Amino acid sequence: MSDLGRVLRLDARRTALLVAVPLLTAVGTAAAALSMCPPHAYWDNTVVALVNAVRLLGPVAAALAAWTAVRERPLDYLRNLTARSPATGVLFDLLLLSAAALVSYAAVTAVIVAVTVLHDGTGRSHPLGFAAGAGALVLHVVAGYLAGRVAPHRATAPLVLVATGLWSALRVPGMSWWSLLPPAALNQVALFTTLRPQVLADQVVWAVGATAALILGYVLWATRRALIGVPLAVALAASAAATLGLHGTAGGTVAPAPTEQVCREWPLTVCVHPALRDALPALTSAVIPLAARLDGTPGAFTRVEQRPAWAPGGVRDGVAGVHLDAALPPGFEERAVRRIRDGLRDARACPSPRGYGALVDAWLVGDAPPAIGDERAARVFGSWSEDRRRAWLRTHFADYRTCTLGPHDFRAATGVRSADAHGPRDAADGPGTTTHRTPHEAGNGAQGSPARPRRDPQPGATAQEP
Question: Where is the composition biased (Basic and acidic residues) (predicted)?
């Protein structure tokens, strides 16, 4: 066996590889698990978890590579016994260490992908995202090993760990384009958005160019061959171009993504993002009472759709738009119903619920009636049946929307009910019923001069038809 073969076998038996693979796998899996906090599975966030895992995995890999370089430096004399290039041993070391790091990264990727698949992950997978994480990890290995070769001291590995750790930790996600340089610091991707492929491609080019530049720079220094300067210049140019591309993003990494929602069609149509399909039963049950009470009014709706955070909510053309917290915290469906109700009011004319409007607000969402200044109106409204309240809302919806409800709106309804208490027809429920009201009572309560309302009948007396 040649001297070169014996030296290569010696290189392959290093204990550093046996330590690196399980250690890096454990560290990477733990780091990725911390990033996968949302209860739903979203492929974009799977990529984010892997890229963010490299922020912890990379410094550990760099320190191990530096420790290996320092530890094996006394064996350089064995390489000098062969006729090979002085850079061959270094390149072989980098190949073995990079392979060990990539095996660990592949194991972490397999775990995270399996979790996403088991949870019926939605969205699009990004192969460039997986490549960006792998490129950043190899860059750390190369930088750490070459640092150990250039400065073979015991303190090199700890210093490499600190330096690479600070580079990862001090960059805040979304603050600047600096946070996009490998290893990138990324925020969780919100629903209805996706990672921009161009950003991931620039990260891959930057990592590959920087890695090639470090290796070629060391080979040029070790061999003194000027021709190596040509590929070195190409690698540096690629990294510079990628840097300009990342700088042009201004730190933005996501873009809106068209999403086909999943729906539940009965008893009314409710649609949400596929990642939140588990919210459909609770959300449907919560919106049914509100939809029934608004039936026949300008605020009626027969369809509920989840909207992105940047899209307006409210009821338009029979469709109610809602915003849902991706984590689906307890009570999310009740908050969605209240947002639909709040969207019924004119924000300019009615900035906050008060008085009689608050009484109707509580009934619409099934809350206990609040205390208002007019106890009589509150008592009357509370005594009506569900059908009578719905009929009353169809008549007074315009006043409710603009917060112009007044005591006359409730007194008029009370007089009608009392007048027909002994008659053959129900004044509120019977079709074709004619109600005699003053001009002011027949309007919306906000226009015209106020008219004197009819005197309410005394207790025990029967109101007479005019």
Answer: 419-428
